[in-house]
User: Which sequence fits this backbone?
């Protein structure tokens, strides 16, 4: 299926090593949060608000408290006594743990029952009586910013409206000039719908605060356990050395498990107050209705072009629907995340991006759902614009892309909004996709079907995306002030086996295998001999976590660097053992040998043993080290996705017939795992384009609070994928990797939408908002029919 | 009011007192400590709780434990025999048919029921058979290959069927 | 999700079940496949005090024709959707049902869920109701005091409501055996496997010498209950299945639908899908007849 265009690297890079983590999952012996059971453990259930916006006038917990089996009922009032009713968000705003004054979205946490049994806990929820005084709900971000809109955050001093931020990037004057010179301007006005990552495992925790020692051990579904520990120290005022966050096996994350959620905080507070472990397992409705959503950007993009198809400038105005708290999980300095990569793969002389964020009566979130901080929205907008521009110019969409790509000789390329792209060859990826899809023949078939007029139409959609990953360099990237480095600690045992500990936390990405391969490649210890350990803050070095495709670009680099440190020390030991000078040694994977005398050598295993038994005088014993990696730049993987769809012109039904993905993520450590990431990403890209959406009615009631309304594709709808690759290594990453976990989610939605629009473009259709339901396609056709 | 039920689970008779309202998935996880069946939704949509009851896949979140009194259950813990991986377990590992692993036990059990009925399924037949099981990581393609890998191991054929 | 407490009763005979129903009536719910009821109980939208599990009752698992294929197809209350999906009898003789069965929910749910249970649940987006209306089937209800046969046209009484009395148990659904030249299908627009119908259309026609003698059209998801498109059916009877006749029936079926705009699509869109699907269904029937 996949064609590997690159030569396999020597050593352990580029090998599809079978995953070391699989065996426990295949046996049903994974250790997910639901599997964590502690003696005397209690269970917590959450009562949620039925209203999107309402004042709480009273809460009566007496009947619930009296129910046999109930240990405690926690309310916001109780938390307020301990100064825990509110907590900081990852973007420096505040969010309620349990509502005290008002509820601000449907599903907001109002009270928690702690009981001996989960069934009883849920029985007790029905006995809590809450009186609400409903308030008008603000569900539209434009209405939120209008004069006289109800004030959502009346709890915040100085907050007089629903505006959160205003942020700009790029050069407004240069962009104005570009538009003044342009022959034509093409506009796309669209909404990237509110989506939800929905890992199949919901969130949960087991909080175990030992009243005697004061030590809090919190098992938690967290993609970023170290950052959570620090936030907990700040929220709860617990000394940080007394907090241990253990993130056990995680049943998918996709960005959903980055933030701190009220359930974690209440369970911990309850354990502290009661002195017994408290377990909270979220249900699906709770997950969908209250935890980190993604996207929800209203975007208007304008592209200035010459008549011969040269791009001159890009202007973007956006409004972000943030929910009732600004809780984006993204670098502090960048209010709209990395959205300003919106110039994409194109040599765009000028660009200007304006973004505003608004409070609404919806759940907070704004997580990077399989996305590097809003690059998904950016990629979608530019790739939709390019297709619209091609129609406007009467050019083939592939040709227009080709004409405007940043050329290989232009790298490192500084974009109009300030990114320095590391490397790329966009035309090569596009050409390979066109060739593999049989592009010319598809256009012929498309024309023939249109001519036949039997109601079956063919559409071809392309997206040539470039994204920015691997946040990030400490000068620009931090979360709540903590720089976005990551770390690795490597310890080689006397027998030559090793443990590699990292500050990130995988959720299915295969770190236990790929990171072992990195060390294997650098030191020659086979991956099977290396245990990769993550997700326990007491036993791993500090790191910012796994999201935004940053693990391989940052933590993977740290793993390579720490292995190199140990290799340096190994060299000294080898020189000692072989009684030669270090300069006389040469390294091949797994051993140092004497130059010119290859039979005189020491393997890494022998050297490791010597590090504990026969190390040079004056040298510290042992073979271990730690490295904190501060990336010099982001990495810029790219791809071309080409989607072919069949559309039923009568009903608007459509389905993908062919999906060709050409990904370039630099060096591939484990091609099997990389391809797995790409296929997963393509599926979520398809899902967003076709069906995933959380909507609200005018009262702020959430439509999409379960898997019957919030739709995830099954194997039946999901298309077959054909994967190909090109390889353009990152020049600054120690082993040339760029990261890949999210590329396909970022890039492919535009390819799917472009394909459907392309099928009906001859009728005059230029846009269909996501999710592209059959009804939406039909309405779009009717609209152009009606308008002539 | 608890009821006593006796169930044969992975070949072993197990007797327990349960509340009628206890869901089968909670019985398996909490009472029998069999953790392969997971819970991923509230609406019988995701299928990560699927187990076999008398050889037939059911969503164990949508059945009460009292309903399986006298029946025979297979969970992922019963797939492997004599310390050997089941062909499906091998197939999922070889073809990278799992990432986070949360849907995997149910996926393999449903696939095992399919292979009982159809020893050499096509890609379409596999996709249809597992369309009651969500996976959020793999995009299903490698799951299809994993099932075909297992089919080839269990029932070697001269050539795979094409569509 | 965690259901409320209930008392669980598992009768061993039909008589026992009927007397328990008579005794508990309004307080009790019948548990068959449970694929609609248990989710509602988990969400605590339903909290019956007593659950009467009929899965252990003998004599309710039949799927067969009586009177040597000239009477009825009889579907017992414990016949699972999976059995209907795999039935060669349905594929050969009841194509509308054979087409609908694989489109009910998802494969695992079909292993438990039953046709009769689905009828009793009376979800306006349920597929079997439309099929039964198109095929002019009926439901057999038993109680401690007797038995009655309720035509599908009289069975549904609004969303999630039927004319069954609380002491009655639906023991069987019946569909009249088809005439010699009968054809049909079920077309469903769904957003994904397991989704309820945006629009579903059940079509069934019988012909003699090319002239339609009986036509059945049932509509799913486009009204407060399943709809029998009577005008469309009558417009076909006595006519050949010409393009014109099909077009006319499709338009009448669309006119009979009462869809609402929701996340699945606008009312206009759903009405249009009814029109297109009825026409397609009839064309497919015509093609099947030619084959």
Assistant:
């Amino acid at each position: 299926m996949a064609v590997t265009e690159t030569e396999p690297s020597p050593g352990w890079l580029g090998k599809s090593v079978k995953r070391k983590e699989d065996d426990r999952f295949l046996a049903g012996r994974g250790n997910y949060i639901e599997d964590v059971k502690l003696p005397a453990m209690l269970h917590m259930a959450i009562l949620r608000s039925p209203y999107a916006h309402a004042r709480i006038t009273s809460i009566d917990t007496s009947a619930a408290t009296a129910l046999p089996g109930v240990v405690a009922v926690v309310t916001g009032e109780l938390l307020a006594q301990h100064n825990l009713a509110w907590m900081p968000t990852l973007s420096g705003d505040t969010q309620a743990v349990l509502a005290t004054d008002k509820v601000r979205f449907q599903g907001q946490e109002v009270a928690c029952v702690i009981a001996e049994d989960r069934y009883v806990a849920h029985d007790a929820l029905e006995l809590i009586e809450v009186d609400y005084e409903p308030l008008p709900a603000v569900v539209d971000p434009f209405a939120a910013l209008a004069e006289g809109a109800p004030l959502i955050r009346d709890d915040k001093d100085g907050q007089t409206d629903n505006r959160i931020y205003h942020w700009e990037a790029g050069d407004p004057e240069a962009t104005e000039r570009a538009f003044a010179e342009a022959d034509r301007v093409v506009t796309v006005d669209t909404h990237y719908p509110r989506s939800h990552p929905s890992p199949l495992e919901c969130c949960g925790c087991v909080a175990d605060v030992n009243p005697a020692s004061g030590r809090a051990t919190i098992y938690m579904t967290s993609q970023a356990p170290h950052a959570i520990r620090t936030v907990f120290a700040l929220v709860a005022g617990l000394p940080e050395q007394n907090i241990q966050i253990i993130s056990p096996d995680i049943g998918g994350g996709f960005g959903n498990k980055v933030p701190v959620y009220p359930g974690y905080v209440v369970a911990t507070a309850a354990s502290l107050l009661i002195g017994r472990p408290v377990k909270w397992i979220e249900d699906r409705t709770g997950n969908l209705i209250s935890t980190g959503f993604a996207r929800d950007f209203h975007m208007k993009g304008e592209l200035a072009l010459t008549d011969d198809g040269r791009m001159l400038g890009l202007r973007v105005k956006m409004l972000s629907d943030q929910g009732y708290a600004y809780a984006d999980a993204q670098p502090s300095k960048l209010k709209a995340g990395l959205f300003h990569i919106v110039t994409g793969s194109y040599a765009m002389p000028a660009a200007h991006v304006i973004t505003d964020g608004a409070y609404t009566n919806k759940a907070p979130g704004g997580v990077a759902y399989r996305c590097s901080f809003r690059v998904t929205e950016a990629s979608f907008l530019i790739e939709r614009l390019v297709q619209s521009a091609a129609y406007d110019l009467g050019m083939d969409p592939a040709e227009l892309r080709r004409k405007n790509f940043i050329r290989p000789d232009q790298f490192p390329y500084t974009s109009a909004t300030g990114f320095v792209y590391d490397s790329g060859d966009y035309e090569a990826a596009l050409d390979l996709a066109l060739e593999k899809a049989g592009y010319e023949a598809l256009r012929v078939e498309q024309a023939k079907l249109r001519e036949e007029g039997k109601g079956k139409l063919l559409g071809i959609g392309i997206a040539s995306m470039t994204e920015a990953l691997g946040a990030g360099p400490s000068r620009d990237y931090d979360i709540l002030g903590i720089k976005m480095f990551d770390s690795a600690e490597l310890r080689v045992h006397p027998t030559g086996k090793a443990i590699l500990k990292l500050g990130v936390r995988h959720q299915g990405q295969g770190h236990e295998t790929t990171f072992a391969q990195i060390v294997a490649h650098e030191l020659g210890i086979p991956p099977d001999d290396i245990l990769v350990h993550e997700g326990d803050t007491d036993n791993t070095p500090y790191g910012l976590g796994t999201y935004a495709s940053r693990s391989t670009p940052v933590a993977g680099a740290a793993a390579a660097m720490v292995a190199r440190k140990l290799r340096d020390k190994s060299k000294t030991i080898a020189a000692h053992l072989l009684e030669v000078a270090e300069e006389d040694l040469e390294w091949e994977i797994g051993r140092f040998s004497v130059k010119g005398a290859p039979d005189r050598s020491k393997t890494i295993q022998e050297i490791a043993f010597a590090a504990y038994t026969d190390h040079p005088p004056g040298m510290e014993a042992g073979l271990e080290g730690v490295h904190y990696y501060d990336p010099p730049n982001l990495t810029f993987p790219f791809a071309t996705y080409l989607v072919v769809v069949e559309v039923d012109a009568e009903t608007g039904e459509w389905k993908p017939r062919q999906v060709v993905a050409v990904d370039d993520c630099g060096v591939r450590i484990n091609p099997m795992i990389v391809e797995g990431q790409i296929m997963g990403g393509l599926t979520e890209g398809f899902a967003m384009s076709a069906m995933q959406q959380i909507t609200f009615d005018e009262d702020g009631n959430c439509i999409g609070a379960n898997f019957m309304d919030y739709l995830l594709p099954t194997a039946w709808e999901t298309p077959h994928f054909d994967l190909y690759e090109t390889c353009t290594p990152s020049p600054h990453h120690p082993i040339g990797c760029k990261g890949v976990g999210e590329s396909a989610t970022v890039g492919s939605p535009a390819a799917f939408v472009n394909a459907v629009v392309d099928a009906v473009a001859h009728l005059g259709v230029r846009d269909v908002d996501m999710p592209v339901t059959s009804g939406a396609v039909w309405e779009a056709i009717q609209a152009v029919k009606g308008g002539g | 009011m608890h009821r006593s039920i006796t169930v044969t689970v992975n070949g072993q008779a197990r007797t327990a007192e349960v509340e009628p309202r206890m869901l089968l998935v909670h019985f398996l996880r909490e009472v029998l400590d069999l953790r392969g069946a997971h819970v991923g939704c509230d609406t019988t949509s995701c299928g990560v709780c699927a187990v076999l009851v008398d050889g037939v896949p059911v969503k164990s979140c949508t059945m009460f434990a009292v309903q399986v009194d006298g029946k025979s259950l297979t969970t992922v813990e019963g797939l492997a025999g004599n310390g050997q991986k089941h062909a499906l377990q091998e197939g999922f590992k070889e073809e990278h048919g799992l990432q986070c692993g949360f849907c995997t036990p149910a996926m393999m059990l449903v696939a095992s029921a399919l292979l009982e009925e159809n020893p050499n399924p096509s890609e379409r037949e596999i996709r249809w058979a597992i369309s009651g099981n969500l996976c959020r990581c793999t995009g299903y393609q490698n799951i299809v290959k994993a099932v075909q890998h297992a089919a080839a191991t269990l029932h070697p054929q001269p050539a795979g069927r094409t569509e | 999700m965690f259901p409320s407490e209930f008392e669980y009763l598992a009768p061993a005979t039909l008589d026992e079940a009927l007397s328990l129903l008579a005794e508990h009536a309004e307080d009790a719910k019948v548990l068959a496949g449970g694929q609609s009821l248990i989710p509602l109980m988990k969400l605590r939208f339903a909290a019956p005090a007593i659950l009467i599990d009929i899965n252990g009752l003998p004599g309710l698992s039949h799927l067969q024709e009586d009177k040597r294929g000239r009477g009825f197809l009889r579907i017992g209350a414990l016949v699972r959707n999976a059995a209907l999906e795999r039935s060669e009898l349905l594929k050969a003789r009841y194509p509308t049902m054979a087409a609908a069965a694989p489109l009910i929910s998802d494969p695992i749910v079909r292993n438990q869920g039953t046709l009769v249970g689905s009828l009793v649940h009376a979800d306006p987006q349920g597929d079997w109701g439309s099929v039964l209306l198109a095929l002019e089937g009926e439901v057999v209800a038993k109680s401690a005091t007797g038995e009655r046969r309720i035509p599908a046209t009289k069975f549904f009484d609004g969303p999630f409501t039927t004319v069954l009395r609380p002491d009655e148990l639906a023991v069987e659904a019946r569909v009249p055996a088809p005439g010699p030249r009968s054809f049909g299908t079920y077309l469903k627009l769904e957003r994904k496997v397991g989704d309820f119908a945006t629009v579903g259309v059940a079509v069934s026609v019988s012909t003699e010498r090319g002239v339609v003698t009986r036509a059945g059209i049932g509509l799913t998801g486009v009204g407060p209950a399943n709809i029998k498109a009577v005008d469309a059916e009558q417009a076909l009877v006595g006519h050949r299945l010409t393009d014109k006749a099909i077009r006319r029936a499709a338009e009448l079926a669309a006119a009979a639908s009462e869809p609402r705009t929701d996340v699945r699509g606008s009312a206009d869109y759903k009405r249009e899908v009814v029109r297109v699907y009825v026409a397609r269904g009839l064309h497919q029937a015509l093609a099947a007849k030619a084959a």
